[in-house]
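Z., the sequence and structure:
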Amino acid sequence: MNAMNTLEQLIRLASNQKHTVISSFAPMDLSLLLHKPAPDSWSILECLEHLNRYSRYYNPALAKAIASNSGGNFLQTISYSWLGKKSLDMVRPDNGKKNTTLKRMNPNDSQLGRQTLEEFLDHQTELLQLLDKAKGANLNKKAIPVEFFKLLKLRIGETLEFMVLHQERHLQQALRVKQHLPDKQNAA
């Protein structure tokens, strides 16, 4: 797949995700952002906190990998490792299978506030900058240690795609929570 087309698609999707959070969630009352449809499901802020936990790890790892693998003439295609394909298939928004997250990535019953939303927007700004910088990087370089098992590495391109698709999956989840809020008049 052509890397520039893929990066442009990811930039558009990440920009739309940022806009969704600003327009759909930022105006909401904190009580609605914290509403859980069921005790074992996540609130809107818990969905965002889950994504923040991934961004805290992967954004710096991506920044380091992109900086150290830029500046050459690289083949402008993205190829996928077995691990990359498996990871992407797992987080695709159209994959209806519910996945169990690692305990440290599970925000269920965390004490969250509006700063969770602001942190997500900050991470999203960073991700958009990384996607832009990635245009000059070797996207096929295995340089990103997997968060839960650092001996395994993902390629730069597939990690960027993983981040954007993972975010899309959980933002869709958060939008479903918003649709089922008890008091839709206050949902903004």
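The beta strands are 142-146, 149-155. The radius of gyration is 17 Å.

Let me know what you think.
H.
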